[in-house]
Amino acid sequence: MSTRNLTITTAIDMEALGARLAAGMKPGQLIYIRGPLGAGKTTLVRGVLRGFGHRGSVKSPTFTLVEPYTLSALTVYHFDLYRLKQPEELEFMGWRDYLRDGVCLVEWPERGGNVLPEPDLDVMIEPLDHGRNVVLTAHREQGSAALKGLLA
To answer: What is the number of domains present in the chain?
Structure first.
């Protein structure tokens, strides 16, 4: 397990962090993005999508639970579990199938309870007086590869 701790001062910097993370992501990866409301989770996801070449809008799929983005290299599935009523709902929607061909970015993973496995990479965003503290923890080799994208 490896960890990186970064201070991010602007939304532009948060998007840039996401784009750098995208450089190390591959299909089948599960990334958790944690933090309080307004921390910048969706901004980080927007950066990941921009890193893969997406140029359209990016919104949090709060009511639909998942928004797919089919890109040239792979499909990114953006989950927002904030309004998930029961973790078992994830099983009914077949969430495991999403991991077969894409990268899954999951906001509010704690709402998934024991249904979700340990992620490849866990991103915690903590608001500061001026900016955000971002703690990135790789739990598997695939997560470590995404962290290496930060050095590119």
So the answer is: 1
